[in-house]
Write a structure and sequence with these properties.
TIGR03085 family metal-binding protein; 10 helices; four-stranded mixed sheet; 56% helix; alpha+beta; CHP03085; 2 domains
Length: 209
């Protein structure tokens, strides 16, 4: 099983255990909403634009709500379990595009529940996550109002954010740095070091793609 499919399967198992009304870290979304989002992302390319473009968000939301209206929660989770669209036809694309997507959304559900703790990740997944953080930091951190230095536990540095001004160092394992970069700062187990005002700005910045 690929890393992407492993995260997909683990997330769907968690969906099944928690049911449709559990909270997630995606603002305003329950597990039902997140499952519908994942189906839309893979199987309704006509509605994907609103994920990134505000002007199209209304249509995307209507399609997502329509998926919930047409599919009971267990059925929708069953659809998520099976890679769909082009990802289902091209496993290499599933691995390239979905590994981090499903890892982050898996953590969105895990970390919204009480008593969560970081997982011990396979070394292969840890290496892949750091590779993506190192190559994508500038894009993911582009809206940060302060300079950010990502320092990986065990070695590795990546830079992003503002090109000058105050600097904040963000230290932690690759997986926690990824969640920070994806805008989950409040739930990422990282250490922020720098001027207090700059640290506050970094912690509240809108990050991610």
């Amino acid at each position: 099983m690929t890393l992407a499919r492993g995260e997909r399967s683990a997330l769907c198992d968690l969906f099944d255990r928690l049911g449709p009304d559990a909270p997630t870290l995606c603002a305003g979304w329950t597990t039902y909403d997140l499952a519908a989002h994942l189906v839309l992302r893979e199987r309704r390319p006509d509605a994907m634009g609103g994920i990134a473009i505000g002007a199209l968000a209304g249509y995307t939301a209507s399609v997502q709500n329509g998926l919930k209206a047409r599919h009971p929660y267990p059925e929708l989770v069953g659809v998520v379990r099976r890679p769909g669209g082009v990802y289902g036809l091209l496993p290499f694309l599933d691995a390239a595009v979905n590994t981090l997507e499903f890892f982050v959304h898996h953590e969105d559900v895990r970390r919204a529940q009480p008593g969560w703790e970081p997982r011990e990740l396979p070394a292969e997944l840890d290496r892949l996550i750091w590779k993506r953080v190192a190559t994508g930091a500038r894009l993911m951190l582009r809206r940060s109002p302060v300079r950010l230095v990502l320092r990986r536990t065990g070695g590795g540095v990546a830079l992003g954010g503002a090109r000058d001004g105050a600097k904040v160092q963000v230290s932690g394992p690759a997986s926690e740095l990824l969640l920070f970069c994806f805008g989950r700062q409040a739930h990422a187990r990282v250490e922020l070091t720098g001027d207090d005002a700059a640290v506050t700005q970094a912690a509240g910045a809108r990050l991610g793609f």
